[in-house]
Amino acid sequence: MKAVIWCRHDGDNVIGIGPNIPWHIKSDFKRFHRVTAQHSIIVGQNTYETFPNRTLPDRKIYVLSFDKAYEVADRKNHRLITNVHYFAQLPDSEEVYISGGAGIYRLFLSDIDLAPDYIIDCCYLGEMNTDLVGERIDVTPCVEFMNNHYTTYEKSLIEDNVLVTLRLKKNTAHHLKTTIDLWRRIADNS
Ligand SMILES: NC(=O)c1ccc[n+]([C@@H]2O[C@H](COP(=O)([O-])OP(=O)(O)OC[C@H]3O[C@@H](n4cnc5c(N)ncnc54)[C@H](OP(=O)(O)O)[C@@H]3O)[C@@H](O)[C@H]2O)c1
Fold first, then answer.
1. At 16, which helix (H) or strand (E)?
2. What's the domain count of the chain?
3. CATH code, 139
């Protein structure tokens, strides 16, 4: 099972300014960690470099880079991938969360064959930190792709100014149990 997970800013779909995410919502970070822990994530090299010590404990990290000589920080748990088609042959039993940044979201949300079963669409409704210096990075084409190719699960929630909806890829045989279990982990902030 594959899913995108992101937190985008309402209206302009910004996900980053330079290397930074321009808000700090503890419950959103907790949600990301809760959903992805013990599973696998896919990140682009730029996002990987923003992780403290280039790691996140308790999960496997696939790092996408065109640079075949790029060295990951932890050879046991991190794996360099230079060809996105590698992910097509992963077993469906492996839960894989596509976790940014914009280059990687655009890669997976522009081609219907690469597009994952689910999108965990977190939308921050508050003010961004505009003191940050750097390019504003947005995922507007991905949101348009999502609106065309995904339906919205019946439940949603708002927590700390973040609206969370689960999107299901159209014309896909979703297992109800998987969907319910995923939503439970998204919503359970205990
Ligand atoms: N709000 C959120 O949910 C969220 C989540 C994650 C990240 N972010 C933000 O997103 C921003 C970073 O996004 P970004 O677009 O600059 O970088 P990125 O998507 O993290 O990484 C881009 C890199 O991925 C590699 N890549 C891209 N396509 C590839 C392909 N087809 N095959 C192999 N490698 C490929 C390339 O690495 P090489 O250059 O090494 O070849 C490319 O430079 C930051 O601001 C970060 O804070 C936000």
1. strand 14-17
2. 1
3. 3.40.430.10
Q: CA nearest 41: which of 65, 62, 72? A: 62
* pLDDT band of 109, cuts 50, 70, 90: very high
CA of residue 46 to ligand 1 center, whole Å:
5
Nearest atom (ligand 1) to Cα of 48 = 20
66 close to ligand 1 (CB < 6 Angstrom) = yes
List the domain range (segments joined by +) for residue 65: 2-187
Ligand 1 atom nearest the C-alpha of 20 is 47
pLDDT at 130 over 90: no
Task: Report how far ligand 1's centroid is from the alpha carbon of 190 (Å).
Answer: 31
CB burial of residue 10 (10 Å; 0-12, 13-18, 19+): middle
Instruction: Determine the average pLDDT of the residues in 50-77.
Output: 97
pLDDT band at 2 (very low <50, low <70, confident <90, very high): very high
141 C-beta closer than 6 A to ligand 1: no
The string of DSSP letters for 129-167 reads -TT--S-EEE-HHHHHHHHHHEEEEEEEEEETTEEEEEE
Please give the C-alpha separations between residue 132 and each of 7, 17, 19, 126, 129, in angstroms, as whole numbers: 17, 7, 9, 16, 7
Average pLDDT, the chain: 97
pTM of the shown model: 0.98
User: Which pLDDT score is estimated for 189?
Assistant: 77
